[in-house]
Amino acid sequence: MPDTITATAPQAPGAELRATGSLDIKDSRTGKNYPVQILEGGVEGDTAIRAMDLRQIKTAPEEFGMMTYDPAFMNTASCRSAITFIDGDKGILRYRGYPIEQLAESATFLEVAWLLRNGELPAQKEYDRWVHDITYHTYVHENIKRFLEGFRYDAHPMSMLCSSVAALSSFYPEAKNIKDPDQRYISIIRLLAKLPTLAAFIYRHGKGLPFIYPDNDLGYVENFLSMVARMSEPQYEANPVFVKALEVLFILHADHEQNCSTNAVRAVGSSEVDPFSAIAAGIAALYGPLHGGANEAVLRMIEEIGHPKNVPAFIDSVKGGKGGRLMGFGHRVYKSYDPRAKIVKRLADQVFAQIGMDKDLEIALKLEEAALHDDYFVSRKLYPNVDFYTGLIYRSMAFPTDFFTVLFAVARTSGWLAQWEELLNDKEQKIARPRQIYVGYGEREYDSRISEKFPKTNKDGRKK
Ligand code: CMC
User: Fold this and answer.
1) According to the model, what pLDDT value does residue 20 have?
2) Catalytic residues
3) Looking at the whole model, is its pTM more than 0.90?
C-alpha cells in the first residue's frame, strides 16, 4: 500500500470556530434573556450560532426547548469544510483556495481530485503514484458486466450507474472498515478508477455494443473516451478537442460544497456505511432534474422550443407559470453569473469552432439574452448555471441526452469522496439526524374501518 494514504482534511486556516461576540435573545413569552455565542470561522469570516445553544430557551423545565426551523437548509451550516469556497454574490468558486478559472485552464482532473482530497497540489511523485493507482484499478469484476446486462436496453443510464455503484459495495466487503486508512484509500482509488468504466459500459449497453476494457496506456479522459467509442481499431485515438473539453468539464463539476448530492453523501456516510453505498446515494440525488439532471432537462427544453423564433413565447410561458422553469437558470447559492457557466460558454465556442456550430446554440444564446434582459429573471437574480451550455457540448461529442448526468457523476465522485473523508475526520460530526416539528394528530384510539383484512384460515392456520 502506498505511503500517501492519509488525507489532511479538514485542517486549514480558520478550521477552528472562534467566539467573536454574543447575541442576546429575549424570549417575549418569559421576558428572559439568553446570551448566545457568535462563532466565526474561516478566512472569509462566516458567522453562525450553534443551534444547540437555543435548546436552553424554554418556558418550562419539562419542555424540549427551542429548535431552528429551516426546510431545505436555506440558512443552516451542517459542517465546517475546508474544501470548496463559493461567494454566490460575487460569482467566485475556489477549490482549496485555488480559483476555478486557473484550475480549469491549467490543471488535470486527477490533479484536482488529489487537491480536493489532500488540501494541497500534488508533488510530481505523489501525482505519479495517484495516477498509477487509479489507472491500475479501472477494471471491474466480470459479474458487474452480467449485472449490467440485466438492464433493459432503454434503462436510464443514471439508474444503471446508481445501482451498479451500490452493487460494487458487495464486491468489496472490506470497504466497510472505514476507520482503516488503507481501506479508505483503496476504496477512494477504486471509485475514482471504476466510475468511468461503469459509465462507459452503461453507454455501450444502451447502444447494444460490446464492452471495451480499459486501456492502461491511456490517460483518465482518453481511456474513458476509448471505452465509449472504440470499435475495431487496436488503440483508440480520441479527438484532442474533446479530451481537453471533457477534462475541463470534469474539473468544473468536481465539487460544489454542500449541494443536494454532497449533502446526501455526507448524511448517508454519517451512518458509517461503506463509501460505495454513500456515493450511490449521491448519484441518486444528482439524478433529479433540479440538480445534476438539469443538463439533460436543458437540452430537452431547447429541443422542445425547436427554433429561435419560439424563444419569446417560451419565456412568456415560464413567467406565466405554464412552461415550467427555464432549466439551466438559477441557483441556490449563485445570485450572479455562475463562474462555471462562463467557462463552459467559452469552451462551447472553442469546441464548435473546431467541429462546427451546434444547430441549437442559437436557441440557447437567444434564451440567455432574453432572460438576462427580462425583469422576471433579473429581479430574482436568475442567471445561467453550469448546466445551461454543457448539454450542447456533450451532444456535439455524440453523447446521448440521457447520458449527460452520468458525466457529471463521474466528475463529482472526486468531490463526494473528499467531502466524505472530511466528514470522517471531523470530530464534531455524528450521525446526521434532523429534528422535526410534529404537526400531526395528538393521541387517538385505534378504531379500524376495515372488517376483512386478514385471510380467513382453518383451525390448522392454513388459508381457507
Ligand atoms: N426558471 C424560472 N423561475 C425560476 C427558476 C427558473 N429556472 N429558478 C427559480 N425561479 C423562481 C422561482 O419560481 C421563485 O420565484 P417566486 O419567488 O416568484 O416564487 C424564485 O425564482 C426563487 O426560486 P426558488 O425555487 O426558491 O430557488 P431555489 O434556490 O430553491 O432553487 C434551483 C434553486 C436551482 C433549484 C432553481 O433555480 C431551479 O429549479 N433551476 C432550474 C433547474 C436547474 O437548472 N438546476 C441546476 C442547478 S446548477 C447544477 C447543480 O449544482 O445541481
Assistant:
1) 93
2) 331, 387
3) yes
Contact 430, 279 (CB under 8 A): no
- Ligand 1 atom with minimal separation from the 328 CA: 44
Measured by CA distance, the residue closest to atom 2 of ligand 1 is: 325
> Binning pLDDT at 50, 70 and 90, where does residue 10 land?
very low
Listed residues 87, 105, 138: the one ending a domain: 87
pLDDT value at position 11? 55
Question: What DSSP character marks residue 73?
Answer: G
Taking CB atoms and a 6 Å cutoff, what residues make up the pocket around ligand 1? 256, 259, 290-292, 294, 318, 325-332, 380, 382, 385-387
pLDDT confidence tier of residue 462, bands split at 50, 70 and 90: confident
In the Cβ-directed half-sphere of 59, how many Cα atoms lie within 13 Å?
5
Give the residue whose CA is nearest to atom 10 of ligand 1: 330
Query: What strand order describes the sheet that includes 92-95?
Result: 84-87, 92-95, 98-99
- pLDDT of 14: 60
Domain that holds residue 76: 18-87
Tell me the DSSP string of 259-305: -HHHHHHHHHHTTT--HHHHHHHHHHHHHSTTTTTHHHHHHHHHHHH
Cell numbers 463529482 correspond to 412
What are the φ and ψ backbone dihedral angles of 50, each rounded to 5 degrees? Answer: -80, 125
Nearest CA to ligand 1 atom 8: 330
170 and 296 share one domain: yes
Query: Do 136 and 51 share a domain, yes or no?
Result: no
Q: Which atom of ligand 1 is nearest the CA belonging to 331?
A: 34
The continuous run of DSSP H or E covering 418 comes out as helix 404-425
Bridge-partner residues for 24, per DSSP? 35
On average, the pLDDT of the chain sits at: 94
